[in-house]
């Protein structure tokens, strides 16, 4: 096993197209790190540079404290699993898994032991004599996993390994990959564009974007911290099954409290006062309020009960999810929002309904797609220091 370290790594294709810029990341021994972001943000490029399949234009990559910039892929002690499986069609499953070890002149009996052990772990013992074309997509991906496992590498690299599987198989294979990592504890770097895959698999996730023109890291943290404390609006919008709600308005101060207001929508939300210090530089400025659909409810459960933290919204469509319903609504001035609330059969569509926002779970962003989260400026302050961000009661 090994650590992986990237220092100021950048990639310029053909001396002109810059794909990534100044990528810095320390991956711990045994850690499972996921690169996630929309298509074109440089995830694969970065992974392929770590694998040695792509030249490194700038910076340093270390695997196990050894600089590998000029080390051939086969000598980097990594094993990679690709989206398209990349199996040899004319070889049996056994041979596909054994081939890399044969090239390395591993003794025959040891190859047999390793292949059989991996096949057992993956439940493909009965398929060893078959050719890849006699396998389903899910089985082929298991063989590709098996081929990586038998190598016993220091690092696993996965490039969208589940993208060719159907939705159900994707979820079960995902769980298996996680269980496999718990068992083998091999350092793993995993690329996906699917936020749910990233959330469920990663010890830490690296959220990337390309919207500024080149691949850039937007935030690195545990899945729950990235979800709860997005560093900027892009991260808030990208993670989560249902999009975050955003409303543009202004931050004003009244008495000793800050309010987010948007008069056109008749919205006035009182911000929690423990954030006053962070909010004061933004007084009277245009800001974007962000909150997840499940931070809305039909009754006021927030800490400012009795205050006006409500929105009156026109409900459009109700989507039952099971225990909850998603209600698509819009403000008087036509901004679309989604509320996720406890399911009930008689929820009215096409009516004006009052919702409350739980102000513990709102974010305030500077304007623009990458506006920083001014309440959680480094994306993890709160989670690291205070379990419950509400103000503590002072003993009498
Ligand atoms: P992702 O994996 O996040 O979808 P990629 O790493 O594949 O992103 O691509 C990052 C950027 O680099 C994109 O703009 C892409 O068009 C460009 N790119 C990728 N491969 C090449 C290549 N071989 N030659 C030129 N540009 C490339």
Q: How would you describe the overall organization of this protein?
A:
There is one protein chain. By secondary structure, the chain is an alpha+beta fold. It contains ten helices and 20 strands. The protein has helices at 43-51, 93-103, 108-122, 137-150, 167-184, 195-201, 223-228, 233-238, 276-279, 381-385; strands spanning 4-13, 17-27, 32-36, 58-63, 66-67, 78-81, 155-159, 187-192, 204-209, 216-221, 245-254, 257-262, 267-270, 286-291, 296-297, 310-320, 324-330, 336-342, 352-357, 362-365. It is elongated, with a radius of gyration of 25 Å. The termini are far apart. Residues 380-396 have low confidence and may be disordered. Adenosine-5'-diphosphate binds next to β2 and α1. Adenosine-5'-diphosphate is lined by residues 13-14, 17, 19, 37, 39-45, 215.
């Amino acid at each position: 096993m090994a650590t992986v370290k990237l220092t100021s790594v950048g990639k310029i294709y053909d001396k002109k197209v810059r794909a990534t810029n100044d990528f810095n990341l320390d991956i711990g021994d045994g850690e499972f790190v996921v690169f996630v972001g929309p298509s074109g943000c440089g995830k694969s490029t970065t992974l392929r540079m770590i694998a040695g399949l792509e030249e490194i234009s700038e910076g340093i990559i270390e695997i196990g404290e050894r600089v590998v910039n000029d080390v051939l892929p086969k000598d980097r002690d990594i094993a990679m699993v690709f989206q398209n499986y990349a199996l040899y069609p004319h070889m049996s499953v056994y041979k596909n898994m054994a081939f890399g070890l044969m090239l390395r002149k591993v003794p025959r009996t040891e190859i047999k032991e390793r292949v059989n052990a991996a096949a057992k772990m993956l439940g493909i013992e009965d398929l060893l004599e078959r050719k890849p074309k006699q396998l389903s997509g899910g089985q082929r991906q298991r063989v590709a996993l098996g081929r990586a496992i038998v190598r016993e590498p220091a690092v696993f690299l996965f490039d969208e390994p589940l993208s060719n599987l159907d939705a159900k198989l994707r979820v079960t294979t995902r769980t298996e990959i996680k269980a496999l990592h718990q068992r083998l504890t091999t350092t793993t770097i995993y690329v996906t564009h699917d936020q749910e895959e990233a959330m469920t698999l990663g010890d830490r996730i690296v959220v990337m974007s390309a919207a500024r023109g080149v691949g850039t890291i937007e935030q690195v943290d545990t899945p729950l911290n990235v979800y709860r404390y997005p560093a900027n609006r892009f991260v808030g919008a990208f993670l989560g099954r249902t999009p975050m709600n955003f409303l543009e308005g202004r931050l004003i101060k009244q008495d000793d409290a800050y309010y987010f207001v948007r008069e056109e929508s008749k919205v006035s939300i009182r911000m929690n006062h423990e954030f006053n210090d962070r909010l004061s530089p933004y007084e009277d400025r245009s800001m974007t309020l962000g909150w997840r659909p499940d931070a809305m409810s039909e009754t006021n459960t927030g800490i400012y009960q009795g205050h006006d933290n409500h929105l009156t919204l026109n409900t459009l469509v109700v989507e039952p999810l099971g225990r909850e319903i998603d209600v698509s609504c819009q403000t008087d001035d036509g901004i679309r929002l989604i509320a996720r609330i406890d399911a009930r059969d008689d929820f009215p569509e096409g009516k004006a309904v009052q919702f409350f926002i739980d102000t513990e779970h709102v974010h305030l962003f500077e304007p623009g797609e990458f506006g920083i989260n001014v309440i959680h400026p480094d994306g993890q302050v709160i989670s690291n220091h205070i379990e419950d961000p509400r103000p503590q009661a002072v003993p009498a």
